[in-house]
Backbone:
């Protein structure tokens, strides 16, 4: 299951992580976010040794969401070494998402 992060924990949990981190920027009212959420949780379990997976509620954490210019959700960002390494906007089926993440989980 993906771990929840907040404005307060984002730097420590994401930017300082040794592993690449997939951040699911989402909000409770977002239908596509609810569709992709369980897929993100599955990837979190299956790839735990290669990829850290976290979720950030954009409604509750405006500081981080605006710092990364999140205007469309779901937005999945991969951070590596504290930098954005990949951006995936919109919901995807699991095989497509795994393909997008192949360079980090392969």
Residues:
């Amino acid at each position: 299951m993906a771990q929840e992060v907040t404005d307060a924990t984002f730097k420590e949990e994401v930017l300082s992580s040794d592993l690449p981190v997939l951040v699911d920027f989402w909000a409770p009212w977002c239908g596509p976010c609810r569709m992709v959420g369980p897929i993100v949780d599955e990837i979190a379990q299956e790839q735990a040794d290669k990829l850290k997976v976290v979720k950030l509620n954009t409604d509750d954490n405006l500081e981080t969401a605006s710092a990364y210019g999140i205007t469309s959700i779901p937005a999945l960002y991969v951070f590596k070494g504290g930098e954005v390494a990949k951006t995936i906007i919109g919901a995807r089926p699991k095989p497509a998402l795994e393909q997008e993440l192949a360079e980090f989980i392969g």
User: Anything to note?
Assistant: Strands lie at 3-5, 21-26, 52-57, 75-80, 83-89. The chain has a mean pLDDT of 97. DSSP finds five helices and five strands in the chain.
